[in-house]
Design brief:
Structural class: alpha/beta
Number of helices: 16
Distance between the termini: 34 Å
Radius of gyration: 22 Å
Shape: elongated
Strand content: 5-15%
Order of helices and strands: HHEEHEHEHHEHHHHHEHEHHEEHH
Length: about 375
């Protein structure tokens, strides 16, 4: 029997439980619906995430995560999902900004396609991952007068050199026939301002975003009414581990050939897992890389299994694991070889991919090139 079979048999997407108490924003005359053919997902009215939060909710810090729907959804996001769920378990209001404007700035995508991609991301996060949140389009947030006022104030307060210094090195050093564009300097300023105007007290991001969020201290502070107020503290940054690709490299250095997306076939998934960078326990890692097999088991598989699982080793022995920590310990001590893990990882991820695609649907994913 394949390893972890017992756990996989009882695998259930967490969304089903989450949806019992959350069905998205209530449809009212103030709720904006972004339409795609016959599908309508209600997007929260911008005023729901403004600093004018009802007093009962002001006592809890608003958590915020922004994501630009650039590439087809991939499992590299899985390292940030636990932080989003953790914020909700604490009872914190959570705002997820779907940064369609940023996509237009960085990739020249039309606003219509950017909105479609935003809906696609929301369907994945809400339906497959079970993230109960207030979902807001960046293009809606950016139309608020207070956002424009704050953007002008921030632009006047940040030097060109500081804005350029907040960019990833691969962007700031861009040269040649396509030099650095003005939009590249606007991107980090707007990314920081998004959380401030959305009323966030805690901004969730991966560690690779630290440079960009260094600009938070230069953002104009806003009070509960959306007015600038010098005594207002900047949001606190909470960072999580960077996602990695199948080569164990940071996602910023990845490509579609080294990421596992929800549009893989069973064959392409098996091929990518087979190529995963996975030094056996006790062997040193190449500098700048992580063990991709361990990362995917920790973030993409283990959280989705609901009971203790049995690992069947190639020599015929069996090991029972209650959690990822015990698995990692056995792996590092050499009790488990990478070849013992890869087949079951393929099986677990294929189940997830099938469920994710069924929740997103073909219409929202139609922009993805096969």
């Amino acid at each position: 029997m394949p390893m972890w079979r017992a756990g996989l048999r009882d695998w259930r997407p967490p969304l089903k439980r989450a949806c019992r108490s959350h069905h998205g924003p209530r449809r009212t005359s103030n709720t904006k619906n972004i339409m795609h053919n016959d599908l309508a997902l209600p997007m929260a009215p911008v005023r729901d995430v403004s600093p004018t939060t009802p007093p009962a909710q002001r006592k809890m810090p608003v958590a915020f995560w922004g994501v630009a729907p650039i590439a087809p959804v991939h499992l590299g996001f899985d390292s940030i999902i636990p932080a989003l769920r953790g914020a909700r378990r604490k009872g914190w209001p959570l705002t997820v900004l779907l940064a369609d404007t940023h996509l237009c700035l960085s990739h020249g995508i039309s606003s219509e396609e950017a909105r479609q991609r935003a809906l696609y991301y929301r369907a994945y996060l809400e339906r497959h991952c079970g993230i109960s949140a207030t979902y807001v389009l960046g293009s809606d947030l950016h139309q608020r007068p207070v956002y424009m006022q704050a953007l002008i104030a921030a632009a006047a307060n940040i030097s060109v050199s500081r804005a350029k210094g907040s960019l990833p090195s691969r962007v700031s050093s861009k040269a040649g026939p396509a030099p650095l564009a003005v939009s590249s300097l606007m991107y980090p300023v707007m990314q920081c301002l998004d959380g401030v105007v959305a009323g966030a007290r805690v901004i969730i991001a991966d560690q690779g975003q630290r440079k960009i969020y260094s600009l938070l201290s230069a953002m104009p502070p806003l009070d509960q009414s959306g007015n600038m107020k010098a005594s207002r503290a900047a949001p606190r940054l909470f960072t999580v581990a960077n996602g990695v690709d199948i080569e164990g490299k940071p996602l910023r250095d990845s490509s579609s050939k080294t990421r596992i997306s929800i549009h893989e076939t069973e064959g392409s998934l098996a091929e990518k897992v087979h190529r995963m960078y996975a030094p056996p326990g006790g062997q040193p890692l190449v500098p700048g890389r992580k063990n991709a097999l361990l990362w995917h088991v920790k973030y993409c598989m283990a959280p989705w299994l609901k009971e203790a699982t049995t690992l069947h080793l190639s020599g015929g022995a069996k090991l029972l694991f209650m959690d990822f920590d015990s698995f990692e310990d056995a792996y590092n001590r050499g009790q488990i070889h990478p070849r013992d893990c890869k087949p079951v990882l393929v099986e677990a991820l294929w189940r997830r991919i099938q469920h994710a695609r069924s929740q997103v649907g073909d219409e929202l994913g139609s922009w993805v090139k096969k």
